[in-house]
Amino acid sequence: MSTIHEQPGRVWVRPLCWTAVMLDGFDLVVLGSITPILLSGKVFGYTPSTAAAVATAGLVGMMLGALAIGTVTDLIGRRRAMLVAVATFSFFTLLCAFAPSAEVLGLLRLLAGIGLGGCLPTAITLVTEYSRAGRNGGATTLIMTGYHVGAMLTALLGILVIPSLGWRAMFVIGAAPAVVLLPLMWWHLPESPVFKQGAGLDPVKSLLRPGFRRPTIAFWVTTFMGLLLVYGLNTWLPQIMREAGYPLGTALSLLLVLNLGAICGLLCAGRIADRVAIRPVTVAWFAGGAITLALLSVRLPGPLLYVVVLLAGCFVFAAQVLVYAYIGRVYSAENRATGLGWAAGVGRLGAITGPIVGGALLTAGIAFPWGFYVFAVVAALGAIAIGAVERSSVGAPADRRTADRVGSPEALGAPGSTE
Prior knowledge:
- The protein has about 425 residues and is an all-alpha fold.
- The protein is about 75% helix and about 0% strand.
- The chain starts with 12 loop residues before the first helix and ends in a 7-residue tail after the last helix.
């Protein structure tokens, strides 16, 4: 059987997946950039509760998309699933620009969320299966820098575009790149070399069989905590900082710094995990997130505030991506996308909880400092949960279950993955 380096089209996998994840990140963070405008202008009669409901609708869609498309990916293939996911979220994102009411905007966010939810697990699955065994941490975190580049672009464009063109233009900008990306994916994105259609495995039931049950539950709990942090912060950080007395420009710039920190964290976390061990590095990253978020509950002087927000982004966002990389090592080719999709899907309950908690704290007028206290506790719980995955889980069930030859140590001449 050919090795991963001989597969046609492999050079396109990372750039195309990175670009799709970048658009995913842009689209997911766009609500955080326009929410202060909708609230201050009372657009559609917007209130913090309305904003939380619209954000929640999108996250419910993402949960459904992760569960459905993640599972379907193991049945129809990674390439087809990626095309469907990108086309879906781009089309409904474009329609958001023409929403006549908060209710319609929420419905369109729900539908766009289905595509968004399926994009991430499929992209990570493809990248994992084109990486050396036990060395997917750096590849996964590199791909996920695309998410935060997209988020940074959202923050920058929010500052530059909204005052002149209005908030609706943000959705048009977020959807437009699909006009180029989809044809490129159609012509150049290869199928995974280890995907076998009709392999006979029930991918959902396999997640809870002996050998997978404990890590599966631990991953679900950890991803709940991690996504609560990711979406809670990206949705509400600008408004929480407004509540703390900072001007809108500063609040939006802190969202930019948060995602800049995420990119810095991603670039180093994956490499460290590949060289040391993924489990303790993931625990350490969640713990670092807890400490930095607790520090944000104090009103810090300007330069120090930016440093702490940068570090918070470094730890919080990279911690969640390390969980995805960890999942990619535990499951086999037959149920890897399902494992990623269900972890992300169950974790979306945390993503839904984050905006709801933020909205409730804002409505009560106590978002600062209590929001950061809550987020710090959540990060600490994430560290505890990921620590519950057994050291022996890394690679063991997957290696026993399947001959994942293209990415296996035997095919590539690489040592096996161990803690």
